[in-house]
Structure formats: structure tokens, C-alpha cells
Please model this.
Amino acid sequence: MITTTRTGGNDAAAHVQPATRARTGPIVALGMAVGLLAAVALAAAPFVPATEAALTGAVLLGFGFGWALLVALSVRFTDRPQHWAAAPAVFMALAGLVSCSGSTTARAVFGWVWPPVLLGLVAWVFVRARRSLGSRPARWLLSPVLATLVVAAVGGGYETVRERLDVRAFPPPGQLIDVGGHRLHLRCTGSGAPTVVVEPGLGGSSADLGWIVPAVARDSRICVYDRAGRGWSDAANGPQDGARIAADLHTLLDRGHVPGPYVLAGHSFGGLYVLSFAAQFPNQVAGMVLLDSTAPKPGPPQLADTDSASVLNRAAALLPAAAHLGAGRLLAHVTYDSLPARAEAEARANASTAGHLRSLIDEELAAPASLREASSLGSLNDKPLIVLTADSGHDQGWRAAQDHLTTLSTNSIHRYAKGTHVSLIDDQADSAAASQAIRDVVDAVRTSQ
Model:
């Protein structure tokens, strides 16, 4: 016979009703949410330098804090401690510290290590969390986070391998010349004076001129180059506005032993840069071709909103990190589909890197200054000038601005060409008009007509 011994009321209640413990679902949600908020807060913190390495490291440390918090809260407030979350916390913290170190060598080595390690870590976390969480809602909350990490690992690994293959497949076709703290890539081909120098548009590189270079090089010397951080050129410290770009180009041509004066051709934003060059070095300009060029905007410098500028600079410094995960390669894959095969492959490889994206953003941030600086060119006098405008995709304001550009010289022509703003450069048929305009200005310089 079994008997039951009664004890005091309070003791019985303690045996029947255990202490209430929190559910794991809210703990997982809180940890992930706090990690995201910590990442954003650290990225916006004024004590973190506005560089890609520092901001990426800060974001990773913030996410690492979220995983660590998940461990601590689950141990303190639930009967299911989630010790497995310490592994991604340590991984994120280590990755953040490597990035914050700023060491190029350490980041290059870690770039090969972190994708496979993260992929293996996600698989391990998935198994452990499935056993440990118990709560189906908690597993649902964790699933999109793990899926995002898998995508990052696969994309990061693929990008690391492809960049190494691209370096071997596409060595610099020209020479790298130091212009004062960084090197720029310069490639000259053909023969015959005056030398033609071409500036591609915003975000463009020398590979974008795959149709124009061989067409002009048949009877003239033509030089193309990559602006700082673009193509095969090194990144530069400081803002990349039109005046700085023009000064670097002048130094590049001088140290590359390319004598002037030159026929300058600029497409889109590249038009602003050749105008700035002509304003700074008028004796080095023999003629000019503006290929659907952006028009300058005169006016005094505007006072910058320092708060907005800080946020914008931080976002601009952090965005190129997405290229390390393959985002730039996806974007490049759907562009450059009408260039010659070799130029297309080079352009896609160059445009896929984080450095390319960073240099593009730097130029965009400097756009207001570049627009004003280009307006400082008052006149080309009687030097030959052709303004070539695409006949599609523009409103009346753009056409009027193109008309006004012809007033820079008393020896100018305004032509309209079949095509769009982009096809004047990257389409074989439409780019023939651009090549012809350049050759016509070269002929005008040679014959003094």
C-alpha cells in the first residue's frame, strides 16, 4: 500500500508549481533584433572611422553582440540554454576585429578563410539549434538569419575565387604610373599627332571604350586610362572631384611621356573632367569632343549639411562591402553585353570589385564640385570642338544645354547621332559616330581648319 505524506501548504505548492521560465522564441527574436540595432548604432557612431574596413568591422561586432546576448538571456531566463549561439558570436567578433585592424594582408587571408568556415558553422548551428530550441516559432525566427548567412558565405567564396582568377586572366594592358601616392593605369595605342585622350563617363573604365579605341587608333595615337580606384588603377586618398581628376591626368600624361597638346574627348561625366582639364591647362588642349556630355553648372560653393554629409559618407563607405559578397558581379553580369568580347570581359571583371563601387560613389559625392569646376572654363577660343548628342532619351533641357556647350569655341559643330546616351560608347554601330567626331577634330587640328 502506497501512502502520501502531506507537508506544509507552501512546500506542496513549490513541488506542484515550478518557477515560470521564459520561452525561447522571444529570446531568439530579442537577440537578433538587438544585434541588428547594435550594428546600426556602431556604424553610425562618430568614434568609428568612416572607412569600409572600420564600418564593416563595427557592423560585424554588433551582430556578434546579438548572438552573445542570445546565449546570456537563454541561460538566465529559460530552462533551455542555447550555448550553441556562442559559436557565431565568436566568429562575428573575430571577423569584426580582422576588418577593424585595417591590415590588407590579414583581410586578404581571411577572405579565403571565412566563407568555408561560415558555411560549416551554419550547418553546425542548424543541427544544434534544431535540437536545442524545441520551440517551432524560435526555429522559424532563426531560419531566415541562417539562410542569409549561407548566401553570404557562398557569395563571398565565389567572389574571392573569381577575383583571383580575374587578376590572372586580365593583367593590365598598359602601364601603371605613380602620380603622387597612387598609381594610375595608362594605355596608349596607334600613332600620329595630336594624341587623343578619352575620359569615360561616371563609373566607366578604359575597357568601356572597346569600340572607340581601335577605330581612332587606325590613324591617330589614342590614350585611355582608369581613374583612381577604377579598372587597374590604385585608389586615391581624398575627394575625387573634377579638379583633382584633371590634375592627376596631367601628371599621368607627363610622367607617362605623352606629349601634348591633346585632343580631349569626354563622355557623359567625363565631359566635365576634360572641361576642368582645359580650364587648368589650356596650353595642353588642341581640340575637344564632348560626347553627350553632362553640362557644367556655374555657381558659388554651397555650404554642406554636415550631419547629412556624415550619414552619406558612412553609407558610401559601407556599401562597397556588398561587392565582397558578389553583389557587384551580379550587377556587372547584366551590363556590358555589347562591347567586344575581350573588352566586355575586362569591364565586367573591373566593375565587380568593391574598389570600383567605392570609386563610383566617391565621384557621385564629388559631383556638385565637379559641375562647378567645369564651368570655370570660359572659352576654348577657336580650338576645334564637336558636341555630339544622342538623338534618343533626352528632354529639351538637355538638348538646350548641349547647344550651349558649342558656344565654348568659335570653331564648333553640334551634331546629333543615332542612339542613346550609353550606346554612343558601347554599341558598335552607334559608337561609330563618336569615333568619327574624334577623327574629325584630329583632322581639323592637323589642317588648322
